[in-house]
Write a structure and sequence with these properties.
Elements: H1 2-8, H2 22-28, E1 33-38, H3 41-54, E2 59-65, E3 70-76, E4 79-84, E5 92-98, E6 132-133, E7 140-141, H4 155-159, H5 163-170, H6 176-189, H7 195-204, H8 208-220, H9 224-233, H10 239-253
Antiparallel strand pairs: 1-5, 2-3, 2-5, 3-4, 6-7
Helix pairs in contact: 5-6, 6-8, 8-10, 9-10
InterPro entries: ARM-like, ARM-type_fold
Organism: Hydrogenobacter thermophilus (strain DSM 6534 / IAM 12695 / TK-6)
Protein name: Zinc ribbon domain-containing protein
Length: 262
């Protein structure tokens, strides 16, 4: 917790604050085991109910995952015992199980902060919905700044750069949602110069939402390198990424036609 709090003062980020019911929080903190991912809600629920009925001692949680929201539906003996913000139309679904709830002592964030220690908070202009970043060091700057007050980068130089080069720099954006937008644009623009950075993300990134954005971008691109990266993603450690990459490959290789059943 202390490491996370300190990180907030060192990196630019967007914070989404969620209020979880006590039972959901206890489940998530009881070392749940991830069983599987599903794209389709009905398939996920069938699988979960079967597991829940076979193993009466297990409590199961079905999580709906959207871009900005999570929903929860808890099962015991195949029946729903609790639901919170669940979305049957979510991007994908995760299934977790636990054997028993742990007894938890909830601590406040301030318990992890030493006396006199401070967290630096940078606040954007309340009158504007736009947050400006220095493209060199990614610290927050003002719209009126000519040079970055943190690293001294000439911001006018960035404004004069070609749009494609700005996109390449945007692939390093510290805010995941912003980076996902850039990845999407790179795919639409079929920007070959972005291939090394996309490959780097594939090798180093652990965020499944961002990796899915990479898959979707590569699926739109015409270069042979994009096809090779999709093949690589088809063997990714995350089942949800493998599935999406294989679907993109099949769609691309068959021209959108589904392969005949064997």
């Amino acid at each position: 917790m202390k490491r996370i709090l300190r990180s907030l003062s060192e990196n630019a980020c967007l914070l989404n604050i969620y209020e979880l019911n006590h039972i959901t929080l206890e489940f998530l903190l009881s070392k749940p085991k991830l069983l599987s991912y599903f794209w389709d809600f009905e398939e996920a629920e069938r699988f979960l109910k079967e597991i829940s009925k076979r193993h009466a001692s297990l409590t199961a949680l079905l999580v709906s995952v959207s871009l900005y929201e999570y929903g929860y539906r808890m099962y015991m003996d195949g029946e729903v015992i609790y639901e919170e913000g669940f979305d049957t139309e979510a991007l994908f679904f995760e299934i977790y199980v636990i054997k028993s709830f742990m007894e938890l002592n909830f601590l406040k964030p301030e318990d992890y902060i030493s006396e006199h220690e401070k967290i630096k908070v940078l606040k954007s202009d309340e009158k504007s919905t736009i947050i400006y970043f220095c493209p060199a060091c990614w610290s927050i700057v003002s719209q009126k700044d000519i040079t970055c007050p943190n690293c001294g980068y000439d911001l006018t130089e960035f404004h004069n750069m070609p749009y494609e080069y700005k996109l390449l720099m945007g692939l390093e954006h510290p805010v995941v949602e912003m980076r996902m937008n850039v990845i999407h644009t790179v795919g639409v623009k079929d920007l070959k110069e972005a291939m090394p950075q996309l490959e780097y993300m594939i090798n180093r990134e652990s965020n499944p939402m961002l990796l899915m954005a990479v898959v979707d971008a590569l699926a739109k691109m015409s270069h042979p390198e994009a096809l090779e990266l999709l093949r690589k993603l088809a063997h990714h450690t995350y089942p949800i990424i493998r599935s999406r990459a294989k679907y993109a490959l099949e769609k691309r290789l068959t021209g959108g036609r589904r392969s005949p059943a064997v």
